[in-house]
């Protein structure tokens, strides 16, 4: 009995130790993933330190300086209301990053437990949960989020909740598929032999071994969340003026693309660079955790 208990408790730590050693040797060989990680760290610090980095108040307008091009005083120029674009891009990073993180957190809080339960118990519970996800997946993600926001009202909070709910099926299906594999492992049978409860087995032993695909999917979902939140703000359903947001900045600058393209390029490039960085970082994590793609 003592030997079986030791096997159960040691299963997850052994896997983590192996992954950690490979992380040091293989992940950092992926230069694109490492570079993407550096860019993400820079953007996160920019968002956290926005009050100290922004040269101007992002909401301070001066119509006399409307749509000025890049200069010594305003490195990225000004928008139609004379506000400093660089300051709004920096503050917009805070709004965009924080919003996308909450979107992913909502999807994880709902999707991970339901995926674990569906995969572990199977049967009618599994069928009920999966059919509910099939219904959600039958609608385009952004369209469904737009419908939810249209019903409950505009605003960043409603946009975050709507996208968080829309992202639940993706993470839940991934967790379910991993749980189906893990529940047939020896350590699960050993835990059942010891008389452990199902919930203890699910959240104490199976969940830690699902963290790799969860981490990869969460990273990729962050990229999609940034795009979708920007799209909703662009359509006027997300962030409301005068709050700085990359999508809202694009919407305000679209009328002046021919006479002042700098007003839209700054926020557009910010979205593009951030999304590409999260995608490359997610691909690097996937290659690291997948033995078939791993380069030692």
Throw out a few tags for this protein:
72% helix, elongated, MetI-like fold, mainly alpha, disordered N terminus, single chain, 296 residues, 13 helices, 0% strand
Structure description:
This protein is an all-alpha fold. The chain has a single domain, classed as MetI-like fold. Helices cover 72% and strands 0% of the residues. It contains 13 helices and no strands. α7 packs across α11 and α11 runs parallel beside α12. The longest helix has 37 residues. It is elongated and about 75 Å long. It starts with a helix and ends in a 7-residue tail after the last helix. The N terminus is likely disordered.
Largest sheet: none
Q: Supply the number of helical segments.
A: 13
**H-E order:** HHHHHHHHHHHHH
The structural class is mainly alpha
User: What is the annotated CATH architecture?
Assistant: Orthogonal Bundle
| CATH homologous superfamily title | MetI-like
CATH fold annotation? MetI-like fold
CATH class: Mainly Alpha
Q: Shape from CA axes?
A: elongated
Helix content: over 70%
Radius of gyration: 23 Å
Give the N-to-C terminal Cα separation. Answer: 38 Å
Give the tally of structural domains. 1
User: For the residues shown, what is the average pLDDT?
Assistant: 84
Q: What is the percentage of strand-forming residues?
A: under 5%
Low-confidence segments:
1-7, 9-20
Can you count the beta strands? 0
Summarize the structure.
The protein is mainly alpha-helical.
Q: How is the secondary structure organized here?
A:
Elements: H1 2-26, H2 31-48, H3 50-53, H4 85-121, H5 123-137, H6 141-152, H7 156-166, H8 168-182, H9 186-193, H10 198-206, H11 211-234, H12 246-253, H13 262-289
Helix pairs in contact: 1-9, 2-4, 2-13, 4-5, 4-7, 4-8, 4-11, 4-13, 5-8, 6-7, 7-11, 8-11, 9-10, 11-12, 11-13, 12-13
């Amino acid at each position: 009995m003592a030997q079986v208990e030791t096997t159960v408790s040691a299963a997850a730590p052994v896997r983590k130790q192996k992954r950690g050693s490979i992380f040091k040797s293989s992940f950092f060989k992926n230069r694109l993933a490492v570079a993407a990680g550096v860019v993400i760290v820079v953007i996160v610090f920019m968002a956290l330190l926005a009050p100290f980095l922004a040269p101007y108040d992002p909401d301070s307008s001066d119509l006399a300086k409307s749509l000025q091009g890049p200069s010594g005083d305003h490195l990225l120029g000004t928008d139609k209301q004379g506000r400093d674009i660089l300051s709004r891009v920096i503050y917009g990073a805070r709004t965009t990053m924080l919003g996308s993180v909450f979107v992913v957190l909502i999807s994880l809080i709902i999707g991970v437990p339901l995926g674990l339960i569906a995969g572990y118990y199977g049967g009618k519970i599994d069928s009920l949960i999966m059919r509910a996800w099939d219904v959600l997946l039958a609608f385009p993600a952004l369209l469904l989020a737009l419908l939810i926001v249209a019903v409950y009202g505009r605003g960043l909070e409603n946009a975050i909740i709507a996208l968080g709910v829309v992202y639940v099926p993706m993470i839940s299906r991934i967790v379910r598929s991993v749980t189906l594999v893990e529940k047939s492992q020896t350590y699960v049978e050993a835990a059942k032999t010891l008389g452990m409860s199902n919930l203890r087995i699910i959240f104490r032993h199976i969940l830690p071994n699902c963290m790799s695909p969860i981490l990869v999917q969460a990273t990729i979902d962050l990229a999609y969340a940034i795009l979708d939140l920007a799209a909703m703000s662009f359509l006027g359903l997300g962030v409301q003026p005068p709050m700085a947001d990359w999508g809202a900045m694009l919407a305000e600058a679209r009328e002046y693309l021919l006479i002042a393209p700098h007003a839209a390029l700054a926020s557009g490039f910010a979205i593009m660079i951030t999304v590409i960085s999260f995608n490359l970082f997610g691909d690097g994590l996937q290659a690291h955790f997948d033995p078939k793609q791993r380069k030692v």
